[in-house]
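Model: Ready when you are.
Researcher: Fold this.
Model:
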Amino acid sequence: MAKVKPFRGVRPPKHLVEQVASRPYDVLNSEEARKEADGNEKSLYHIIKPEIDFEPGFDEHHPDVYDKAVENFMNFQEKGWLVQDEKENYYIYAQTMDGRTQYGFVVGAWVDDYMNGRIKKHELTRRDKEEDRMKHVRCNNANIEPVFFAFPDNETLEQIIRDVTKSEPEYDFVAPDGFGHTFWVIDDNATIDTITKEFEKIEALYIADGHHRSAAAALVGNEKAKNNPDHKGDEEYNYFMAVAFPASHLRIIDYNRVVKDLNGLSDEEFLAKLAENFIVEEKGEETYHPAGLHNFALYLGGKWYSLTAKEGTYNDADPIGVLDVTVSSDLILRDILGITDLRSDKRIDFVGGIRGLEELKRRVDSGEMKMALALYPVTMDQLIAIADSGNIMPPKTTWFEPKLRSGLVIHKLD
């Protein structure tokens, strides 16, 4: 049963939210953050990417950078750019993209649920990335940025979303990327109790996005528990901040591949090899989108092709074998192109579907890449089936959009 609690959020005053709020730390590099924060001393980038306050090129993992994050976090609070709520609340956070809105609950998620596998993952994490975020959580003694969860739909929680969102929101703005962000404070005690009880009925929570942040937040909480001789279990560090969305609200966007060479094959030889496992149809110059599961779009030599996996090349009964990322990784990238490690092979790159298939065409037409492969997106049902089976998705399988805006609320660990 999922255990969550309300918390005393640390938030910007209404009139400052657009200046404070930022994109998540891991979707842009230091230089991009420096540009976005230019002339804005209130930008959260000064806390989540504090290397922007040093000379360009300064090591972002230097101890001074973490110290700067702490200094800036304190400074934001002293100046009233971030203010802690008087009481423990839940919050509702809505994101709007392309006229479609998804609503999530901002909660304190229980560290033990992560450690015991009740908060389920579908991706491997890298220790160096975990360690970086653990340092950030430790030194600030806070979860500055939330993680992104999904949970199986629950009608009572859905009704609370409907009721709360009829009222005036605390924040309501459109970010520079065109995505809308709306935020409500739930301070009614009866509603708070209902939310806590309804989450207790939910078997598991699923990490949608933010596996490194989840690991870091939970591991620091666990570390604090072990290091506290008077640990009781009700301390704030036993929880970390997450935005949990009903699964039906979420849509996974395609995550596509571009490859630098054909492993010594000519275009014709490559297409002939593809034809062993796929029905290959030339579609011409007009962009072709994958039509459904097991259908791929290939861009090569100025033309689009439809590739349909032949019967027997996939296993719909297996949560991993059914995935098109598995089919393409095994039958195209590994068997034909000799790419076996998607994480480290420099011949391959990945393009989030938010950029559109035009970006794939551009990367190939420019000569930077030789071919592009577009995949039909994974569904939430597939993600949940994989997490439930204890399996891990292949790298670069899911792309969630819009990303959570950071800086709408922060969770302190004491």
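Researcher: Now this one.
Model:
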Amino acid sequence: MTLKEGEGQLELSCESTRDLWLFMLAVTKALTDEARSRIEAARGKFNPTEEERNPNLKFAENRIAALFAADPDFTRIVGRKKFSWDQYDVFLRHLYDTLRTRDYYKAYMASAECGLKEDAALWKNIFENEFEDNAELEDILEDMRIWWNDDLPYALIWCCRTMDELGRGKPWSLLPLYMSDLSDKTESDKAFVFKLIRTAFANYDDYVSRIAGITPKWDRSRICSTDLALIVAGLAENAAFPELPSGVTINEYVEISKYYSTPESRSFVNGILDKLINTK
């Protein structure tokens, strides 16, 4: 992979995380449509019950789903990316069945309070409670994007933040790719990660040689590729940003190794980075 290709993959992975946020927000309309379909089917029975004839429409007519459906920017972006929940009707049926058993949903349906704030709070509860560790959703996301299962917890955090904003009456807007674009930070996150990847690429052979130099009988072909990438990135961060405390840099990559690498990686990554960064 060339540096240009690596930078392209970096941008693509950032955009993919934002795409997951969009896809998950689009479930608001899909799940609302499922509720409305159930209500209409029950009304059409030969002998519907009183509750079926006069259903509680609070969720079926929730304002959050209507807000997204009426937002031209949201519908245009989601349409352009061809994101749709239509083919996942089985998942939506199971999700709606589960939702109806939840105490927070029952409280919402029973409450006389009715407004955008209440609807947004309900969806925040749904995003917080119904999607992580959901095997059906994991299968869907894995088929769509290779990054998405790893990115789901982060995307759901932003779905919840979006619900908070909408509940306060703020309009929806597309998130930028980098956090610094949302704040008054003087340092650009984009500049940080691009300097990091460029430093790693420029010094890769040197870093690998340094790793080999302190690892007796080290065989590059036998080292976990993820561990090697993390160590190289840690060395690059220390070189590119000497103002950062070395302990902070090392801890960052040790934490990543716990999530993405082998059970032995934590001590290996920590030991190698500590020797190469802190030993003079």
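Researcher: Key takeaway?
Model: The chain has a mean pLDDT of 92.
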